[in-house]
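Key result, reporting period 2: structure in, sequence out.
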């Protein structure tokens, strides 16, 4: 037994595992992240596991989607093998004397990939059986697609490296056939090792089931052995460069939906690029790779800072070309936008909008509807559309007519804007399918695949491709891909510009949209609206009483008045509202100095803050002309939810809790603050709040927070509309509406 244990211990596969842990541990991080994601650990809250275990391609999870992911994983595995082969070859010189050294290295280096594949398949079967409720046949088909994709890529790799080795031997043949020339050029020279050999190898796999003792290569010239390795390294790097070239070409055709691969495949490709880049640097620059990488970083930063190269995402439609007209991002500039005279002028414009709205209502004192929607990716977008669809049917199709404005963050605004656009198209005579099944199927379609596909091609590799919005040109990046996919999913009805909504919103033919985003430099809210809204830029103030609130929000159209602000695409306004960190790029603005904006949820995930400010500003008009405000709030998470998983703190909490406290309590802090705001508003605004909440059947196992939903998650969201709590809210709202119609509601009643 001891003999066999020794053979196993000093075998090349086992020693390679130790080598990975002793050298370049960073490369193992990729495997750890992937395994953790597949097992439901890393980024589980954002649905990372479903991207790998139930990959979607062209709206379906099937053999082809799994095949693409499998091929991408084969590419990642090959890239990892190539890089580690280049980095580790000095530790196993004996391979240079065997045929097909890279193939033998891959076989012996297969322990970690094999362990990952086994975990992957176990989790894939479990996830699709329990979560997606697939049949055994469908699960086996997906598993077969995955393994077929892996073997297909590996087969092409073997063919390539087999051909490259034949070319290497052919080039070396004249020298090998001349012993005198060979000895003269590669005469063995004693070499003193200046480092610990690190690993000791006595046997290695020559095939999948055959072992061989390692050969003593001390009598070989080290120059000759290094030359053999370097020729194989060169062949490997050429393979990497060829793969890069294919990705660059692929990026030029990414607008074709058939070329938008599953998000999991893009993640594998992205990791493969990172690993391959490190391997290429190590090959070409050797010990200079780190200094050169740092130098390149500084050079790139210099070119980026002074705009010699520009990879920043832009607001599509806004004028970035006329630098002399860029506004100064300063407190003084903002104060000039919200002077008393300007606020009075803009308020009169909004009162006219409210009067136009009132003229279209049946009651003398109608209920004024406002809608707030929460952020939450496709989860929130789908739940929002489901709620609006049912509420609209209960009100006999009058919801949009009764609504003055809608606001919110991220995914919720995608759903609300889509529903409003359907209503707008119907008003224009278009044939619109308003059935809940049709519109929720559209808004719940995948948005992640084009984002990740664009990231690994257009953002990283492909030379800039451009498109036009009016007279201006912009670079196609993952922000562009997101907008195009959202437009495609929703029947290409969201392609208008802000200018196109200006008159219809003023005449109250459709609800007013308030699209927000957060300035990352100071947390101010950038408000995009077709109407002037300087009255929303700062809280109420009274300098005589020491209340001198500075502007905490910016009227986008007024601030960029010289840069064609109304030319911005509605799709871009929605994206700026839903800029999920890292998934979508921050949008930089043409200001002095340059600032950038991200998701509105960073400041207000529910849209309630700016809506309450609006209601306060026009409180007197509301009291005089309406029976109160119906404040509809659609949330993708429970309000004030108690954490049942509180545990005694550990030593680890001392280390990371100070850093992660805000992250873990982000939504709770917003809830506390906004409930306080509502409570203070009760006596000044005749407010009736109705809150609809997405509550999954299994607590804390609901739909993930991202731009992708599985089939089970879509069903869970649809079912949540008919929960007991939501049904109760529907009944309460209908009762209130009937009381107003019957003239039995006393003005000023505040209830929820």
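The corresponding designed sequence is given below.
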């Amino acid at each position: 037994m001891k003999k066999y244990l020794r053979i196993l211990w000093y075998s090349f596969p086992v020693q390679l595992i130790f080598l990975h842990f002793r050298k370049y541990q960073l490369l193992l991080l990729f495997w750890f992240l992937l395994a953790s994601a597949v097992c439901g650990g890393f980024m589980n809250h954002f649905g990372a596991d479903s991207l790998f275990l139930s990959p979607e391609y062209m709206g379906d999870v099937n053999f082809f989607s799994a095949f693409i992911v499998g091929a991408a994983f084969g590419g990642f595995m090959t890239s990892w093998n190539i890089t580690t082969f280049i980095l580790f070859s000095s530790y196993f010189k004996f391979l240079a004397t065997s045929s097909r050294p890279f193939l033998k290295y891959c076989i012996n280096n297969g322990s970690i990939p094999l362990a990952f594949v086994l975990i992957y398949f176990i989790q894939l079967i479990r996830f699709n059986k329990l979560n997606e409720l697939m049949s055994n046949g469908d699960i086996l088909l997906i598993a077969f697609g995955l393994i077929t994709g892996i073997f297909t890529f590996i087969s092409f790799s073997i063919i390539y490296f087999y051909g490259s080795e034949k070319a290497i031997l052919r080039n070396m043949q004249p020298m090998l056939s001349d012993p005198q020339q060979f000895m003269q050029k590669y005469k063995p020279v004693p070499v003193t090792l200046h480092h610990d050999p690190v690993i000791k190898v006595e046997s290695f796999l020559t095939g999948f089931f055959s072992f061989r003792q390692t050969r003593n290569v001390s009598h070989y010239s080290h120059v000759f052995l290094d030359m053999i390795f370097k020729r194989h390294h060169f062949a490997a790097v050429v393979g990497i460069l060829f793969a890069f070239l294919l990705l660059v070409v692929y990026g030029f055709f990414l607008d074709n939906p058939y070329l938008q691969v599953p998000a999991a495949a893009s993640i594998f490709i992205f990791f493969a690029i990172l690993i391959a880049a490190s391997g290429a640097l190590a090959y070409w620059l050797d010990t200079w790779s780190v200094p050169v990488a740092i130098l390149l970083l500084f050079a790139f930063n210099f070119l980026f800072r002074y705009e010699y190269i520009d990879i920043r995402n832009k607001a599509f439609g806004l004028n970035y070309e006329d630098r002399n007209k860029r506004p100064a991002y300063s407190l003084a500039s903002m104060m000039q936008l919200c002077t008393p005279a300007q606020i009075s002028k803009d308020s009169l414009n909004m009162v006219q909008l409210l009067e136009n709205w009132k003229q279209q209502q049946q009651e003398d004192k109608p209920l004024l509807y406002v809608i707030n929607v929460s952020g939450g990716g496709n989860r929130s977008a789908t739940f929002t559309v489901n709620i609006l669809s049912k509420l609209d049917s209960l009100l006999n199709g009058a919801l949009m007519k009764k609504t003055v404005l809608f606001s919110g963050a991220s995914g919720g605004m995608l759903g609300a804007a889509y529903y409003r656009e359907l209503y707008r198209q119907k008003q224009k005579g278009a044939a619109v399918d308003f059935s809940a099944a049709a519109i929720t199927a559209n808004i719940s379609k995948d948005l992640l695949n084009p984002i990740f596909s664009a990231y690994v091609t257009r953002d990283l590799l492909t030379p800039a491709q451009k498109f036009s919005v009016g007279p201006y040109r912009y670079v196609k990046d993952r922000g562009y891909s997101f907008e195009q996919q959202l437009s495609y999913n929703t029947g290409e009805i969201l392609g208008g510009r802000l200018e196109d909504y200006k008159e219809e919103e003023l005449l109250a033919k459709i609800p007013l949209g308030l699209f927000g985003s957060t300035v990352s430099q100071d947390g101010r809210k950038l408000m995009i609206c077709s109407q002037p809204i300087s009255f929303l830029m700062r809280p109420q103030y009274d300098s005589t009483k020491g209340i001198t609130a500075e502007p905490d929000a910016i009227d986008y159209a007024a601030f960029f008045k010289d840069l064609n602000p109304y030319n911005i695409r509605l799709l871009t306004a929605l994206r700026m509202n839903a800029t999920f960190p890292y998934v979508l790029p921050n949008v930089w603005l043409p200001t002095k100095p340059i600032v950038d904006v991200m998701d509105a949820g960073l400041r207000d995930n529910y849209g309630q803050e700016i809506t309450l400010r609006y209601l306060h500003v026009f409180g007197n008009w509301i009291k005089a002309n309406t029976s109160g405000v119906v404040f509809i709030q659609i949330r993708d998470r429970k309000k004030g939810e108690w954490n049942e998983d509180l545990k005694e703190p550990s030593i680890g909490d001392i280390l990371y809790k100070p850093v992660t406290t805000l992250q873990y309590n982000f939504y709770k802090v917003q809830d506390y603050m906004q409930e306080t705001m509502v409570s203070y508003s009760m006596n000044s605004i005749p407010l009736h709040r109705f809150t609809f909440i997405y509550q999954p059947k299994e607590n804390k196992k609901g739909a993930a927070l991202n731009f992708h939903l599985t089939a089970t998650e879509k069903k869970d969201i649809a079912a949540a509309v008919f929960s007991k709590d939501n049904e109760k809210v529907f009944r309460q709202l209908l009762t209130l509406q009937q009381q107003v119609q019957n003239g039995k509601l006393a003005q000023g009643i505040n209830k929820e």
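Confidence is low (pLDDT under 50) at residues 746-752. The radius of gyration is 31 Å. This case is discussed further under Risks and Mitigation.
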